Amino acid sequence: MGLLAPLRRLAARTVGHAIVFAAQVITAVRAEWRGIEPVRRQRVYFANHVSNADMPMIWSCLPPALRRETRPVAAADYWLETPLRAFVGPEVFRCVLVDRRPEARTEDPLAAILAALDEGSSLILFPEGNRNMTDAPLLPFRAGLFNIGRARPDVDLVPTWIANLNEIMPKGEVIPLPLICTVTFGAPLHVREGEDKDAFLARAADALVALAPEPRRSAAA
Amino acid sequence: MSETDGDILLLSLGVAGLLMALTFFGEVLRARQPEGATDPAVETYMMRIHSWWAMVILLALALLIGFPAVLALFAFASFAALREFLTYANKRQADHLSLALAFFAVLPLQYVFVGIRHEGLFGTFIPVYAFLLLPVVSALRGDPEAFLVRVAETQWGLMTAVYCASHVPALMILDIPGYGQRGPLLIVFFVMVVQVGDLVEYAAGRRIGRRTIAPGLSPKTWEGVAAGLASAALLGGGLAWISPFGLFGAMAMAAAAFAAGTAGNLVFTAIKRDRGVKDWSHLIPGQGGFMEQLDSVIFAAPVFFHLTGAIWAV
């Protein structure tokens, strides 16, 4: 084990570089910092979720110094399913794993998330909980984002819109198309004094949808 | 070192000298700013010059290394341009496989056909076979919604970004009596007259332009185009010694390439306006995307290729 651990870390870093390289060469992923600057502040990037490639895309377009300090919050039931995922999720992306199935939980998901924040990490979070397969821009947010914002009011909650991924890799397709993916970072939010859960989550969802590009004009429409 | 390589180096050094002067000019403008301040116009100008450095160095290296490197460079440029075009095209999930084929099969095959110097396949593969096959692949998925629009837009992307652009490396496979192995210099000639004509057209249009060519679409003016045409022809005459065209032939070919290129520029402006995009992408700092850089080349390359082929090649 003593020899294996550094080797695994090296492998994890190599795979991480390969993922960033692939994302940048194939989809030319581009970050647009509209509401904030790419500086080292503790943040929770909360994003829309349409594809399994969402998280690697956001992760890849962060500047390296920020990427090293940013951990995605991801589903344990997905990332621990196979040995390969158990390597990529926890070791390459250094995911904070939470279990979406209440009956299987041994740990409070919020406690794991807050512990990661208290270690100084920034987070990537998908407040919809599941991939959005509908025509609506967003699914209703779960309570997690509100609970984090109330428990750690100093942390910036940054709306993060990923455009085009549903065309790059629609559900059920195997080959990703090399179209240009844009990740837009908006102005940070905080839970206001006395703001209740529904009001905050509605405000957060509006801030996120506001970053979506205008629907393109189309002769077909 | 062959005579052709020597000429490529000489011309590269000439262009590098010009870029050095332009870089120095930008640094002087920077130095004239008050301490700590920056002028966005100067910074944009410098970003453009830096991108020009990168493009000139890449093209010069590819031409010195030889035909495979030139093919690889233009195949990559085609890939990047097609990616920009199809990002803004109409498509549905039923097109997923045909789009994947466009990127990963049609594009590489087109450059392979140029590479093996198969003029028949290189000329017909995309406009005949790819155009017939890809709609079949889309149709098999059974989604008729906006079908013709989807098919047409994909085909236009392939036609411009891949088929037309591949005519630049194809200049090296033309068999021109008495020109020998000097094919790379034909590319230098072509790229220089088109790009310099573009730059002069832009700069002159802003200073002396009065009458717009296509009001409501583009700021291009007749005066700017006339200046671009004249400068392309003059440069073509000055570069006649690297071409097989002779002095007047070189001037006429340069003018024709510029005219086709500026028409391409106009057409791509119309497409961008239709789609509501300002720049195709941000991959070339200060210039926009690959499509911005290639739009004039895309229209000029087939015209230049076929004129050369019809008049000077066997």
Task: Give structural notes.
The complex is a heterodimer of chains A (221) and B (314). By secondary structure, chain A is an alpha/beta fold. Chain A has a single domain, classed as Glycerol-3-phosphate (1)-acyltransferase (3-Layer(aba) Sandwich). Helix content of chain A is 38%, strand content 15%. Chain A has 9 helices and 7 strands, in the order H-E-E-H-H-E-H-H-E-H-E-H-E-H-E-H. In chain A, strands 1-7-6-2-5-3-4 form a 7-stranded mixed sheet, with helices on both faces. In chain A, helix 1 crosses helix 2 and helix 1 packs across helix 5. Chain A starts with a helix and ends in a 12-residue tail after the last helix. The C terminus of chain A is likely disordered. Chain B has 314 residues and is mainly α. The model of chain B has no long low-confidence stretch (mean pLDDT 91). Chain B contains 11 helices and no strands. Helices cover 75% and strands 0% of the residues of chain B. The two termini of chain B are 28 Å apart. Chain B has a domain of 107 residues. Chains A and B meet through loops of A and helix 3 and helix 4 of B. Chain A: One of its GO terms (biological process) is phosphatidic acid biosynthetic process. Chain A: GO terms for molecular function: 1-acylglycerol-3-phosphate O-acyltransferase activity. Chain A: InterPro entries: Plipid/glycerol_acylTrfase.
Keywords:
heterodimer; A: 221 residues; alpha/beta; Glycerol-3-phosphate (1)-acyltransferase; 7 strands; B: 314 residues; mainly alpha; 1-acylglycerol-3-phosphate O-acyltransferase activity (chain A); Phospholipid/glycerol acyltransferase (chain A); transferase (chain A); Plipid/glycerol_acylTrfase (chain A); acyltransferase (chain A)
Oligomeric nature of the chains: heterodimer
- CATH-derived architecture of chain A: 3-Layer(aba) Sandwich
Compute the number of helices of chain B.
11
Beta-strand content of chain B: under 5%
Low-confidence stretches of chain B: none
Radius of gyration of chain B: 20 Å
- Mean pLDDT level of chain B: 91
The coarse overall form of chain B would be: globular
Mean pLDDT of chain A: 87
In terms of structural class, how would the helical and strand content of chain B be classed? mainly alpha
Strand order of the largest sheet of chain A: 1-7-6-2-5-3-4
Largest sheet of chain B: none
Transmembrane segments (chain B): 7-25, 52-82, 94-114, 120-140, 161-179, 185-204, 225-242, 248-268
Organism (chain B): Oceanicola granulosus (strain ATCC BAA-861 / DSM 15982 / KCTC 12143 / HTCC2516)
Pfam families (chain B): CTP_transf_1 (PF01148)
GO biological process, one term (chain B): peptidoglycan-based cell wall biogenesis
